[in-house]
Amino acid sequence: MQPTEDPVREAETSRHRQADQPSSLVARFGPEAPLMLDCGVTLAPWQIAYQTYGTLNADRSNAVLICHALTGDQYVASTHPVTGKPGWWELVVGPGKPIDTDRFFVVCANVLGGCMGTTGPASTNPATGRAWGLDFPVVTVADMVRSQAALIDHLGIPDLFLVAGGSMGGMQVLQWASAQAKRVFAALPIATGARHSSQNIAFDEVGRQAVMADPDWRDGHYLSAGTSPKKGLAVARMAAHITYMSESSLHQKFGRKLQDRETLGFGFDSDFQIESYLRHQGSSFVERFDANSYLYVTRAMDYFDLAAEHGGVLAHAFQGTATRFCVMSFTSDWLFPTADSRTIVHALNAAGARVSFAEIVADRGHDSFLLDEPEMHQILAGFIASAARARGL
Amino acid sequence: MQPTEDPVREAETSRHRQADQPSSLVARFGPEAPLMLDCGVTLAPWQIAYQTYGTLNADRSNAVLICHALTGDQYVASTHPVTGKPGWWELVVGPGKPIDTDRFFVVCANVLGGCMGTTGPASTNPATGRAWGLDFPVVTVADMVRSQAALIDHLGIPDLFLVAGGSMGGMQVLQWASAQAKRVFAALPIATGARHSSQNIAFDEVGRQAVMADPDWRDGHYLSAGTSPKKGLAVARMAAHITYMSESSLHQKFGRKLQDRETLGFGFDSDFQIESYLRHQGSSFVERFDANSYLYVTRAMDYFDLAAEHGGVLAHAFQGTATRFCVMSFTSDWLFPTADSRTIVHALNAAGARVSFAEIVADRGHDSFLLDEPEMHQILAGFIASAARARGL
């Protein structure tokens, strides 16, 4: 492999994304280093955009890979170039934080199929010179992990001290711990599952149908057409956002409180605060996310079923593992309920793995892993400290 | 009031609905009998379409009003004129059924704001000669009950032996038992709440935004424009349909089973059975339901908050009631969880009402009230038999 690396301010993806395109490190892989995808397609050239924090030690033994969720990106601990908001996990990653960038070399890459600089459906299809659109091959969580492994190789890192992530990030953690077991010293899958449930596939399908129902989607070729399916993508985000919260947190935060009024408006404007909140979630999301990437990344989640790749027995995915696991779930998470984490823990136990499990009492649903949940941070810090001692760090 | 009544095969609403319009009884109210709405608008003329089953006895004491849910209609126990399917509650209503049409005179009317013959946004606005569209006044559950009360007056029924319904039908039952307490001998609110939760408002708002995002919606004037926001309405239905089922029933029914294939398709067709099932739910729904009615009827549900109308104390809504109540919920219903029913029961207890409550162990979520759930049917039959004895029927 002879990747080239350089910081870029603009990716060569599409005129629509160019203006938004962040300053990010990008590893480019040419025809000599294609990515072999689960669907059978050989992707080349391709690239992966990433951020790093901290310094790789002389032993190259202190690398941590953070895997992001569906709508996350590589800006785990630095200001987002489009929104100007803090990194999505600055509560966890940074100097003196549980994943301490004074001690660890942290890498976070945009997933394959994403829209923040890694090759995805908005990238240029070399065969046509136009954006891939739906001609982009459907990618899987395993493909995402393959692309990250290529990046880790490229960075000269033999193995990872820790792979951590929540939600779809947790799926990648599990995939790393299975497919690249010998390169993972410790694994931290949070608020995730070893496969997507029927209900989760259903919600993803609603989101995809919302995008595809928007005539501005143009059968996926909106970039060439100069349109943008913002309304459909906003509806998709609104529906998904409900699943990230809990009924009780919605009740506590919004209840039936009215928005900027004292009585019902008897119309279809936002009467209730929850309505304007959701509308804001939808409209702000479309400014930073590509609609086709939304289709591809949700599809990757739907397809994830780690047991199915191992004869239907999840424990076989971890046979003989030496990785230390810490599995975490949240009581109010109904997208990836604790039962999903227990399934993982049982499989790890059956595989003889070293595993600890914590179900954290938290009221804010699936999104708890992104929020200020001190118990999660304490457990996470304790697990990392223990693993670091074992690793001699 | 001097309503005229006649069976109609076609309503005068709009050319789009004409072809679908069912054979139904319709009570028409002219300018001399306007409907006073909560929003302050006086609606006239207006009409209400309904079905009846069984015979009113000489005492006029055996009348039962069935209230339908969001996407239900008056065809509670007869073939649906558009879909050709059996009535939506034939398991419960009919000769020899728990609500026995050999004994009771059953009335079921399409709700105000609906699209099966009762005045709604697809009806003709007398001021313009065109369909109302979004100029139709926003109606409430209380307005629906007012319109039903006018129908019951019109039918010469002094009071109702029973008012029964599930989901939004249950909201109407509660409203009847509160606003028209002396006319309700027994009340059967099933799988419902005394107010819509924040999460339920959120899901409704997603549905409305999906409809309004469809350019064929034409700001609500699609009937005049000759278009139909079918894609948006289908997405709304898909999202809502997930909330009518339980995670466990989806898992049992569909799991991750593939549709017409043995391996993943690596595309965006329906790979999984749950996807094609949801798509079918969406596409079949739009054939029988008006998109603006969907906006109005969901809005009525959002606005429902019986306690708010009584100084914030739900018990005050039922003060001094002589009605017998049977409240039912289902263990797997997460749209109207048992806690919502318990709130109703506590308020009824505080008001000194005669109330029984059953939480039924059922696996199929909110839709359980429509399904073959023998325990529900037994409890329902027992409650009705006891109430009938007390009533001397």
UniProtKB/TrEMBL annotation, chains A, B:
UniProt family annotation: Belongs to the AB hydrolase superfamily. MetX family.
Keyword DNA-binding applies: no
Function summary: Transfers an acetyl group from acetyl-CoA to L-homoserine, forming acetyl-L-homoserine.
Lineage per the UniProt record: Bacteria, Pseudomonadati, Pseudomonadota, Alphaproteobacteria, Hyphomicrobiales
Catalytic activity line of the entry: L-homoserine + acetyl-CoA = O-acetyl-L-homoserine + CoA
Compartmental location: Cytoplasm
GO biological process, one term: methionine biosynthetic process
SUPFAM superfamilies documented for this protein: alpha/beta-Hydrolases
Active-site residues, record numbering mapped to chain: S167 (nucleophile), D333, H366
Main subcellular location: cytoplasm
Coiled-coil parts of chain: none
GO cellular component: cytoplasm
Gene: metXA
One Pfam family cited in the UniProt record for this chain: Abhydrolase_1
Protein name from the UniProt record: Homoserine O-acetyltransferase
Region annotation (Disordered) ranges: 1-23
